[in-house]
Amino acid sequence: MKILKLLLLLVVLGIAAATTVIYSGIVNVAADEPHSDLVYWLLEETRETSIKKAAEDIEVPDLVDPELLLSGGVDYNFMCASCHLKPGQKESDMSVGLYPAPPNLTISAESHEGHEHGDDAQKARKNFWVIKHGIKASGMPAWGKTHDDKRIWAMVAFINRLPTLTPEQYQIITAIE
Amino acid sequence: MKTNLIKTISKIALVLIPTLTLSMTASAHDPKLHAKKPEKADCSKMDHSKMDMKDPVAMAMMKKCMKQAEASSDKMDGKMDHSKMMDDKMDDKDMKKDMKKDEHDNH
Ligand SMILES: [Cu+2]
């Protein structure tokens, strides 16, 4: 009985604490004020685990057809480069202003530390899922609502090769005929 | 109580996130970065000697530049279609000639 009362007290205290946090305005939601290390870690772990699990059963098609690079390249330049940059570009309004920041997709994933990216198939699966479904409470939109899987796979194929492209190659592949 | 809390939090998030994202685009400044005019592929920068023609990137570039050259030559002389001039019909004729020659040699 005593334990039950104690538990009840803890629950009430917890709710009270949460309410205070919400309504006191103590949480800073400004995008130019980074999370504390703990909050950042919590969010990142949650996101990585969630994406990995959600994407694990996706079948990766053949991604070497040059036609995919052309379709994916045009789409990427039009819809994604403002946030994820193009070869030779270091930053944009979006890449600087958004928080969490959009990763620079023109450098290879191996060159940024902090989390695992897995093998090629795993990477492709993960990228496909993120592009299709987006990421909640970040600037990353869900493109699957307006684009079919074929176009999304083309963007995955393009992103695969993006870190190897020179600005000149990028210009030719993404140009509109 | 708890579900209410969660609802409140999601409501706040639902309002805040689009607002933050949208206001970010509004603070754009350098007009050069935002000009999204359709650009033609700059194929003069292509260096064929450095290209591995089995690489999908190289093949994609060739495809794009060939299509573009075709489109612009179509504009210049509407009736001439260079892509059809190297048709195998020409090769066929040559082959037939060769074959006839062969027959000729046979007797
Ligand atoms: Cu990463």
Automatic annotation (TrEMBL), chain A:
Keyword Metal-binding among UniProt keywords: yes
SUPFAM superfamilies: Cytochrome c
Keywords, comma-separated and alphabetical: Heme, Iron, Metal-binding
Chain ranges of the Cytochrome c domain: 67-163
Keyword Heme among record annotations: yes
GO MF, one annotated term: metal ion binding
Pfam families for the chain: Cytochrome_CBB3
Protein name, entry field: Cytochrome c family protein
TrEMBL record, chain B:
UniProt KW Signal keyword: yes
Keyword Secreted: no
Span of the signal peptide: 1-28
Transmembrane intervals: none
Coiled coil stretches, renumbered: none
UniProt feature, compositional bias: Basic and acidic residues: 29-49, 72-107
Assigned keywords, A-Z: Signal
Start and end residues of each stretch annotated as Disordered: 28-49, 65-107
UniProt-recorded name of the protein: Pentapeptide MXKDX repeat protein
Organism: Paraglaciecola arctica BSs20135
